[in-house]
Design goal:
The chain is 41% helix and 16% strand. The strands form eight sheets. It has a five-stranded antiparallel β-sheet, sandwiched between helices. The protein is of the alpha+beta class. It has 28 helices and 23 strands.
């Protein structure tokens, strides 16, 4: 037999010769050599008959042929049956996700700050856009129509058949594009430009991807060549690198691409009818193709911010005299509360997916195992900043699901769940009014001559800053403005420039992200802390000696001594109590309190007021935006840093008594601390989410006599001529005039100004290059408690900071005054009747 002889020629030699010899008498070429060669000697003795041995061999082969598939079948039916069943069922189920709606963001009065706007994109498969669809369909039809003899046709004959059917599909594409342009209401030229743009983008991307793949392959081949050396094997590897590659299509070459963005509802519905008609037509046709191949209507709901830009009419009749005007100014405020509300970004990142998994896993322990219809899909938008990012999980809705069993027609529907709406404590109109005050066109937030700025600040230069307003009773943040700000469109177009702007840092939320040295605005807090701590009694008086250390008049000096070579004790005619010291902002008084308290107590009390990483901080719901403040050494250009020391020294405790040295806080800290003072020591952490439960209040148990003394000092600081927040001195045409900083009739203002070191530079004051000196560039602060003068109760806490603006009272004071007028304009403070105004000037 041929089979046996063939194998015998192979098996009769070499390694199997042993079995041949042991079988006894088997010869190469013998027709029985197969059975003989594969027969062990013991088996040959047990079964002497050659026929039986051959029969046994055939039986073994037959069993093997049955057992191997049987084992595989058993593995499928027993070990993997459940998974295979699920796969089969999935093929019989059609699932479609139903879009949901992202929650809206509202202000405290229900105004919509952010919302989803229904929108649609019209997309077409890439193969249809390029026209390659026609060639693919022509080839399929050629094979289908010539199925019987296709395998016997030559390449040229097959191509001829494809070319014969190609015009049919090219005409179908031409008709499709004509109908597309008609329904979209655009010209064919416009449509062709858009198609060419898509083709160019995808081809460019594909070239880059393939080039990268080639580079990686060359690198792998080079490494392989180095491993194998320069021998024959290395030559084979090197040759393989030159073999032409078959390019696998990239993802963008097999998915639909948007040709029309953000179409109106009428156009979208017209295209949806065409898609439905195409599906029905394709179901009826023999080919399964409709007249509009590859057409998709995509839900592309966009995020809108209706109050992003607001026109504000600013009353300038209460501005400082050089800026005063009887005519109001119209200011277009762009980017209203942008840093608070935030914005969206397209493209899901790995950290977004992981964050959602963590939240789901923590919500009920088993959520991670169930299907998440809110899971991120390619093309989704994600909150990138502010509330949009901080409350991404709450705002993001859950898609619905339509599941249809193709075999039974059974259909189940899971309704979509829209995202939760979020209401903020912010008042959008108050926010816009306060942001308008920083517009350079009004002049309040630019360097003016009356501000007494030291060099190198130039007159007319724009000032950056922030303002925060807190409702004393509730802790609600009514406004949280930062400047410069921007619209989301500016963010998209100018993000590179913004990132490079290290001077103004527009992406920085100065209200809560930038920690400033506070300066004198902490003095009322230090008074209350020292009295509560037992380091000061409210009936005590402390002399202002001009400088704290009797034998060193060059350090720890009072500002009045530095400027006028006098003291507050001399000016007032008596030593100072706490109210006197706050009114006149005496440094010596608070240096002494800082020295009495010592470093540990000073740090502890600033922590109680919310400063430092270990303090209790409000949960604002924002994303990576809070600055905790600092109780650590700060370093400035021109000053050497302390090495290896973390705890403040006694000298720094003295400086911290006037808000200098190793302490920094944000405008939110300042407003919240003054609100705590207004509540007589009950700290209510500020809140930004109106519907979220606030943090539990913390009673600091402040000495009530000290609180009363501090509030009295703040009142006198604005109402008495010697108060540092009382008046501006302005020179016009060589004539000096004085006018009050705060001028809202019927409103009782308790305020403290502060001038805090921002940076220190060496400057040549005289211009001769010889007299270099240290120049202190200062931040300007003004913090106030305001309320109806008729009951005297503080209702709102205001904190204003102007970066590197110099004197707090002269630069930040006028802005704080206009914040008071903004509160009146928005109805938070009652404008008095004429009779009341006369009674409460």
């Amino acid at each position: 037999m041929t089979f046996g002889g063939g194998l015998g020629g192979t098996l009769g030699t070499g390694s199997l010769g042993y079995w041949v010899k042991r079988a006894g008498g088997c010869r190469v070429g013998d027709p029985t050599v197969v059975a003989c060669a594969w027969t062990p000697p013991m088996l040959a003795r047990l079964i002497p008959s050659m026929f039986l041995r051959r029969l046994l061999l055939l039986g073994v082969m037959l069993v093997a042929a049955v057992v191997v598939p049987g084992v595989q079948l058993a593995r499928w039916t027993i070990g993997e049956s459940e998974e295979l069943r699920r796969r089969a069922e999935r093929r019989m189920i059609d699932e479609r996700l139903v879009p949901t709606r992202r929650g809206s963001i509202l202000d405290r009065r229900g105004r919509v700050l952010a919302m989803d706007r229904p929108s649609y994109d019209i997309a077409v498969d890439y193969q249809v856009i390029t026209g390659r669809w026609a060639l693919t369909q022509a080839a399929r039809k050629a094979r289908r129509e010539n199925r019987g003899n296709w395998s016997s046709l030559s390449t040229e004959q097959r191509q001829a058949l494809v070319d014969e059917y190609l015009p049919e599909f090219e005409q179908r594409l031409e008709a499709m594009w004509a109908q597309f342009a008609f329904v979209a209401g655009i010209s064919r030229e416009h449509l062709e430009r858009r198609r060419n743009e898509v083709r160019l983008q995808v081809q460019t991307l594909a070239s880059k991807v393939w080039s990268k793949q080639d580079e990686e392959q060359e690198l792998r081949l080079a490494k392989g060549s180095e491993t194998e050396g320069d021998g024959e094997g290395g030559g084979e590897v090197a040759g393989a690198a030159r073999t032409p590659r078959i390019r696998a299509p990239i993802r963008e070459q097999v998915i639909p691409h948007v040709l029309l963005h953000d179409v109106d509802d009428q156009t979208a519905f017209a295209f949806q009818r065409l898609v439905a008609s195409e599906a029905a037509q394709g179901a009826r046709s023999l080919t399964g193709l409709g007249s509009l191949p590859g057409l998709k209507v995509i839900d592309a709901s966009s995020r809108e911010y209706p109050l992003e830009t607001i026109e504000v009419l600013v009353d300038r009749s209460t501005f400082p005299m050089p800026l005063r005007d009887a005519q109001p100014a119209s200011v277009s405020v762009g980017g209203v509360a942008t840093h608070v509300i935030g914005w969206m970004r397209s493209g899901v990142q790995e950290r977004d997916i992981e964050a959602r998994k963590r939240i789901l896993a923590g919500s009920d322990g088993g959520a991670e195992a169930r299907e998440d219809l809110g899971a991120y899909q390619p093309g989704d938008s994600v909150g990138a900043f502010g509330i949009e990012a901080g409350l991404e999980y709450e705002l993001r809705g859950i898609r619905g699901l339509i599941r249809e069993h193709l075999d039974t027609g059974e259909r189940t529907t899971v309704a979509p769940v829209p995202g939760h709406d979020v209401r903020l404590t912010i008042d959008a109109m108050l926010q816009a009014r306060i942001q308008a005050l920083f517009d350079p066109s009004l002049g309040l937030a630019v360097v003016q001559s009356w501000q007494s700025n030291p060099p190198p600040i130039n007159l007319g230069e724009r000032l950056d800053g922030a303002a925060v307003v807190i409702d004393v009773d509730s802790g609600d943040i009514l406004a949280m403005a930062t400047t410069p700000t921007f619209t989301r469109e500016q963010y998209k177009r100018q993000i590179g420039e913004m990132l490079k702007d290290t001077r103004h840092q527009p992406l920085l939320n100065r209200a809560i992200q930038k920690a400033y040295m506070p300066g004198s605005i902490v003095k009322p807090l230090v008074l209350c802390a020292a009295a509560t701590n037992g380091n000061y009694r409210t009936d005590q008086r402390i002399a202002c000696t001009g400088h704290l250390l009797p034998n060193d008049p060059n350090i720890f000096r009072c500002w009045i001594y530095k400027q006028y070579k006098t003291t507050h004790s001399e000016k007032l005619g008596h030593d100072l109590d706490g109210a006197d010291a706050i009114m006149g902002s005496c440094n010596i008084f608070f240096f002494e309190l800082g020295r009495r308290m010592g470093p540990a107590a000073v740090v502890d009390w600033f922590g109680k007021f919310g400063v430092g990483a270990d303090a209790v901080h409000p949960d604002l719901g924002l994303y990576s935006q809070r600055a905790d403040g600092s109780l650590a050494p700060l370093q400035f250009p021109g000053l050497s840093a302390r090495i290896g020391q973390t705890a403040p020294t006694i000298s720094e405790a003295i400086l911290m008594g006037i808000g200098q040295g190793p302490i920094a806080w944000t405008p939110l800290h300042a407003a919240e601390a003054y609100a705590t003072l207004a509540r007589a020591g009950l700290r209510v952490p500020a809140r930004l989410l109106a519907d979220a439960p606030g943090s539990p209040p913390i009673d600091l148990h402040l000495d009530p006599r000290a609180v009363a003394q501090a509030l009295e000092g703040l009142r006198r600081a604005t109402s008495e001529a010697d108060g540092t927040a009382n008046h501006l001195t302005i020179s016009i045409g060589g004539t000096q005039s004085s006018e009050p900083i705060f001028n809202a009739p019927g409103v009782l203002v308790r305020a403290k100004s502060g001038t805090a070191t921002a940076r220190i530079e060496m400057a040549d004051i005289d211009g001769d290059g010889l007299n270099e000196t240290k120049v202190y560039i200062d931040h300007a602060w003004c913090v106030a408690l305001v309320g109806d003068a008729r009951d005297g109760r503080p209702q709102y806490a205001i904190a204003v900071v102007a970066d590197e603006a110099g004197s707090g009272g002269k630069a930040a004071g006028p802005i704080a005054n206009q914040v008071v007028h903004a509160l009146i304009a928005e109805g938070y403070l009652n404008a008095p009747l004429e009779a009341d105004a006369a009674e409460h000037p």
